Structures are given as C-alpha cells and as structure tokens.
Amino acid sequence: MLSTLAGTAQAHAKAQAQTQSPVKAQALTATKAQTGECTPSVLDRSGEPSLMQQFDSYGNQAFNPLADAGAWHGYLLPQSPKAGFSGPLIVAQEFSLYLAPMLEQLHPSINGRPLDFASADSQMQACAGELRQRFSWPELTLKLALRFVDGRSALIRTELINTGDKPLPLTLEWRGELLNRLNQNKGPLWPADKVPSWQPTPGGLRLSFPELQQGFTGYFTAGAGLDISRSLASNSSVTELGYLSRSELTLNAAESRLIWSRERYTLSPDEAESWDLGMTEDRLAALWQQSSERWRAYLNQGMPELNSYLPQSLAQKSLETLLGNWRSPAGALLHDAVTPSLTARSFDGAWAWDSWKHAAALSYFAPELAKNQIRALFDYQIQADDTLRPQDAGMIIDTVFYNRDPLRGGSGENWNERNSKPPLAAWAVWYLRDDQAFIREMYPKLVAYHNWWYRNRDHDGNGLAEYGAALHLAHQDSEGRMRFYLKPKGTVPAGCQPLEDGWLECAGLDDYRTLAQSQDYQALESPAQQAAGWESGMDNAARFGFIDDSQLSAYAAKYYGGDLTRARRDWLPGFVENRHGGKLVGYSIDQESVELNAYLAQEKALLGQMAALLGDKQAAANWQRDAEALAARINSDFFDSESGFYYDRELGSGKLLTRRGMGPEGWSPLWTGVAGPSQAQAVRSSMLDPKAFNTPVPLGTAAQSAPAFDPHSYWRGRVWLDQWYFGVSGLARYGFLEDARALTAKLLSNAEALKGSAPIRENYHPLTGEMQGATNFSWSAAHLYLWYRESAAAEAQTTNKIQ
To answer: What are the residues whose beta carbons fall under 8 Å from the beta carbon of 310, sequence distance 6 or more?
Structure first.
C-alpha cells in the first residue's frame, strides 16, 4: 500500500510518457492540415435557433455551436441551404442566449435575379475548429468558412468564383434580425424602452446592447455589443431589430473574389479597443492561418493513434468539447478558463474541482490553457488580509464568474464563497511538471490550500478532515449564529422568523441539535448542509443525509419497525463549529469523509514530489512520511471489513456510516493509491457486483442496494464520468485491467449516443443509459480524454511486461 501511494506521481508520468503520438500518425495529421483538408468534427454542429432560450428538458440550449479561442459566442451550420452561419449563441456574462437565427445571411443576385439556394449543389461541413459551406450554380460557386481567431472575434471567409465565360454583375445583400422571444413560456427579453440598437459604421455595423440585468437569464453592460466589419464596402440600413447591407461588384470570367467579415462580440465598452484586429486583408489572412495551425497542433498533440480502451473519435469529441467551452479573460475572470458548458444553463463560469479536471486533460494538447485554468481559481485564493474572510486564508473558493457577488461589490448570482471543493489542485498541477517555473509558482499556494483543510475542516485535530461550510451570511445570522430552516410540528425555538408556506428561519447550533435529537418538526434544513454537499462536489449524495420520504419510510421499516423518528436520526446530519486560536473559522458536517482524506493523502505525496523537484529534500521527505501515515489511517479507520468497502465515518465515535449505502467515495482509495491489496480486491468485488455498481452503464453514484438509490437523482444513482474514471483508473492501478476494459466496453455500448455525434453529457442513467444533465459537459470530456491516454499507457505497460 505504501509503495502504491508513493508511486502516485510516477503513474501520471507513465501515462504521458507512454502515450506520445506515433511519428507516423503525427505526420499524416500534419499533411492533412497543411493541404487545407478538413478533419471532420465528431459533434453535430447543425441547428437553426428560433428562441433565445431554446431549452431541452434539462435546461440546455439546443444544438452544439462551435466556439473557440476563448470567445464568448459560437455558431452553427444551418439545417437548410442558406449562405451564413446560424446564431450566434452569446454568453451574456453568465448565461447563454441565442442572439439571432442567422446574424449575417448572404443573399446574392445576378443581374437582379436572386439565386435559388434550394436548386444549388450544396455542401455543409463541420471541421475541427472550422465551419464550411459550398454552393454551386452553373455560373457561380460560393464558398463560406468560419473560424475563431481570438477571444472575441470570428472571421467569415467568403469566396465568389465565376465559373462561366462571361462577366457576372453581382448584388450581395447581407441581412440579419435579432431574436426577441425569450423562450416557449415567455415573451420578449428586451423591454420596449430597452432594445439593442443597430448603427451603420464605416466598415459595417455595430449592435449596441442596453444595460440589462435579468436574474438567471442574462446580464448586459451598456455599451457591450457586436461589431460586423467587412473588407467589401457596403451601404446599410437598419430597422428596430434588423439590418440590410448591400454591395455591388462584377466578376470577370473565371475570376474569384475573397471577402472577409469579422463578427466581434465584446462584453463591455472598454473591450472594443483592446480587441481591435485591424481589417487589412493580409492581417486577416494571417490570423486565419494562425487559427488553422493552432488546430493542427491540437490534433497532432492530442489525437495520437493509441491502443486505448476508448476510440480515437471519442477522444476527439472530448478535445472539441473542452476547447468549445474555453472562455478568455473578461469581467472578474482574470485568466483563460474552460467552463463546464457553453450550452447548459448557469454553467458559464469556473468551478474549482471542474477546473482541476479540465487542466489535467488540457495538459496533453493545450498546456498553457491548462496553466491559466488553474490560475483562474488561484487568482482568488483567500489571503490573510482579506477584508471578508481572513480566517479562510489559503482557501480556494467554489466558483469564479464574470460578476463577483454582492458581498464583493458585484451583482453576480453564481459567484460562490460558501465552500471550497475537493483538493485535486496538486494533482492537476503535477500534470504540468515539465514547466518547473510553474511548479515553483504554484507550490506555496498549494501548500497554503492544503493547510487550510486542517485548520478549518479538521474539527477535532485528529488529522482526518471533514467537508463543511465557510462563515457566510447564507449560513449565519447577523449575530454569527448558524442559520437553519424549520417547518415546526411542536415547540418552536425563540427568535424564529416566519417565511412562506409555514417555514421559519431560525438560528443557533444548540437549537438545531435539540430539534435534530427530539425530531419535533415536520422538516428541518440547513444551508450549511447544502454547502458541505457542494464542497464535496457530490451535492446531494446519500452519505450527507439526502433521502426521499418514501425511501426513508422503507429504511425505517427495514431497521426500526417503521419508526420514522429513529430512522430520521440516522439521516439528519449534525454540524460542529471549527475554531482556530479561539475564533470561529467555519463549520464541519459531523462526518469524516473517506475520499477527502484519500485526496489529501495523494496531495501530500504530490507536494513531496514537487518539493523534490524544487530541491527541498527535507520537505519532500516530510510530505512522503505524512502521506504514508494518512494512508495507513484511511485503511484502518474508513474500511469496513464486513462489507469490504470504504465509508465515511461519524465524527467523534468513529462509527462507519454503512447504513447510508455504498457510493463512489468507496473506490477513491484505489484511484489515489491508498488502498492495500486486500482492500482493493474487496472493493473490486462490489464494483463488479450487478446488484451494486455493475449496471448496464456501470459505476454510478450510489449502489443499487443503497437506501437512497435513485437513477434520476443528481448524485444518488446517475453515472458521472469523473467517478466512473476514478473507478476504472483505480482498478487499472491495482492490476485489474480486464475489469477496467470490461467496464469501459459497457459504458461505450450502453451510454446513449456517447460514440455518435451527440454532445457528451454531464451524466447517464445507470440502468437505461439515457443521457442526463448538461450537454457538452467539460469534466465528462476531460475524464474520457484522460482515460483514452491512460488506458493506453496501462495496456502498454502490461504488454512490455509480457514481452
């Protein structure tokens, strides 16, 4: 076990070293890129939006737009013959909205006769990093292509070719009109006195947005806008929501003409100047070539032909997904970051542990973006002189968005400092260890974050940490007492304030504990419980006390003869105050979590590797010693020999919370290398048990036998691909390659549309394989990509041993 943990860092090194692209595969890819051939996109990039929020049942925007280079907007190929690109979908600071069905649709005419696109020989092609169209008539060929060239601008390259033997007098009209109906249930987004306005400019048009802040829908700063600039002069007229631009030209026989168009979306008035490209044709052609070369590099470095358990096409889909969710610095986001999803509602920000996962995958083909992804969160690492929470020095906050929250002087709804996220930052940084300067930059910050867990989340100082909640107005009243919400049945604590629907807002940890013990209530909820779930990343996992009423009744019948009062005590979490130097610094949920401590053991080992790399031998030895000591504690304190699985344990008593059922936290000691061989073998048995985790789509977030199992619930049954990856990677680490291969095959066979052109989803139904949750989800893509590389490395290592 100790040697396994010590090999944590080396395992990652093998994955990178043994999966370098074969020279032959690189050369073939480069040749295709150099000749201008298209590497077809694995994703369906077609769609024609008709609503600003064209949501599916999970709140995802329809379709899968191409976005790139950190831009805050994306485009689609139309589903019917039209010259132009559908959209764009824009990120209105924190929420995505379709702006138009097609912002710049080209209507060409010859001698006043409009060309009929339905009769043209047409081709639509989505490439990796590019959208293409081609229309041919007897006398004219029209080609359009779109690429992103920086964090605000897409270029459209339009080529007109006279294929006849006579001059062609052409009239070119570009038309566009904004969408204004928000969704199927709501009317216009823009109030009558606040609508975007079009203005003709010397080089094209500018669309200016008014100030608008509509909660959980979109934010616009006055002066934000979208500029359309063309290399061909045109005359433009505008209406309330639309425009028409008109140009005339004549093409001689066999002559071709190239027209450039730039669509630049800026989120504030001061961005327009800083993101100015210049519109000389040489400059635009150079930017186009740079975009092409950038994608050639992604494919060369990120798409080697490997003997992997996953197909190369799925690795490419993962790569395209990650790069499509890339946002460049804007607002409070100070570094480039890959967000969870461009198309999912409220996911256009940077989450902490999402970021660590994204960075690990990006390290293979976009290492600078990976570094900035990590920096984007560490930009807001809490410092000792912080005006709001100096007690949290070292903490990495949960989310960073365009807008800070009101406590930080902003107006954002998604910024979150109520909790942190699991400590995988050092794991991500270690993927980038070839850059020693970056390791030197990050090492002291990682140490500060590591120490925060023991100062603010180790209630009894025993070296085993808990998840919890920070000091925050959502968790405390004005007197600093812990908030909770009560729907009373009998006695009501003093000072509770009435809310809607019979709920009361109360405060005081002692009163909460009294109610929890007496069960004298209809319902009892704590924001700190929510924050602790968020901090774990497994928001509503059963082990944190989340269970439906019907499931609780079944549990009561099984264990207590139907006594719900006794049953509730097993499921209602308790809380403790954490103090440092006599001062309150936060709250912990009253259980020590196995995967949190497994992550911390891994982090100690990795910090030791970093210290050694930086020449600090003593620190390296100390970290490794502490890592081995914690690993031993995990095996002695969190493993249940009767069921052969790891569980969280109750704070104080050390009682394992076995009755809440098995979850993926139980195989975290395998992934981190903490488990001993006998424990790994026992956990493997549960992972392969069809009555537990070996479902059609395997390794869900709760065993089927768990009391709170629900395949529709967010973290109580659905298959999340990060936890699936931790499972198969952990099995491979302990030599169970055949099991890892078999579980991979089941995922590929049964997860709906995973191998096709549909987007990678947030999670999947464990029994039916139904796609669930967010579309185009980055951490799912990241872990699929990591397994593409690392399963090949594991297979190569085994092959080498046999030879």
So the answer is: 744, 748, 784, 787, 788, 791
pLDDT score recorded for residue 30: 31
Distance separating alpha carbons of residues 351 and 420, to the nearest angstrom: 9
Q: Which two tokens stand for residue 660?
A: 């809440």
User: What does DSSP assign to residue 138?
Assistant: S
Angle at 598 between CA 594 and CA 600, to 5 degrees: 120
Q: CB of 64 within 8 A of CB of 775?
A: yes
| pLDDT tens sequence across 228-279 | 999 999 999 999 899 999 999 999 999 999 999 999 999 999 887 776 767 7
| H or E element at residue 338 | strand 337-338
Instruction: Give first-to-last CA distance, the chain, whole Å.
Output: 27
Q: Which amino acid is at 781?
A: A
Q: Which pLDDT does position 4 carry in this prediction?
A: 47
CA–CA separation, 540 and 254 (whole Å): 65
Catalytic residue among 539, 570, 616, 770: 539
pLDDT tens for 514-530 read 999 898 999 999 999 99
- Both structure tokens of 538: 């497994």
Encoded amino acid at 128, one letter: A
Tokens of 442: 């990050």
User: How far apart are alpha carbons 568 and 574 in whole angstroms?
Assistant: 12
Catalytic residue among 68, 762, 790, 795: 762
Distance CA 233, CA 261 (A): 11
pLDDT exceeds cutoff 70 at 19: no
790 is catalytic: no
Residue 539 annotated as catalytic: yes
Q: Is the pLDDT of residue 552 over 80?
A: yes
Write out the E strands in 85-240.
86-92, 95-98, 105-110, 113-114, 121-127, 130-136, 140-148, 153-162, 168-177, 181-183, 186-188, 197-201, 204-208, 212-214, 218-220, 225-230, 235-238
| Residue 797 · residue 82 · CB < 8 Å | no
Three-state DSSP state, 506: strand
β-pair partners for 161:
141, 256
- Measured in degrees and rounded to the nearest 5, phi and psi for residue 438 equal -70, -40
Percent of the chain as helix, strand, coil, to the nearest 5: 35, 25, 40
For 160, other C-beta atoms within 10 Å of its C-beta total 20
- For residue 111, how far is the Cα from the chain centroid? 51
Burial annotation 22-60 (CB, 10 A radius, 16+ → b, else e) = eeebbeebeeebeeeebbebbbbbbbbbebbbbeeeeeb
CA distance 716 to 721: 14
pLDDT in tens, 132-184: 999 999 999 999 999 999 999 999 999 999 999 999 999 999 999 999 999 99
| Structural contact between residues 71 and 152, judged by C-beta atoms closer than 8 angstroms | yes
Largest CA distance in the chain: 94
- Say whether pTM exceeds 0.90: yes
Model confidence band, residue 14 (pLDDT cutoffs 50, 70, 90): very low
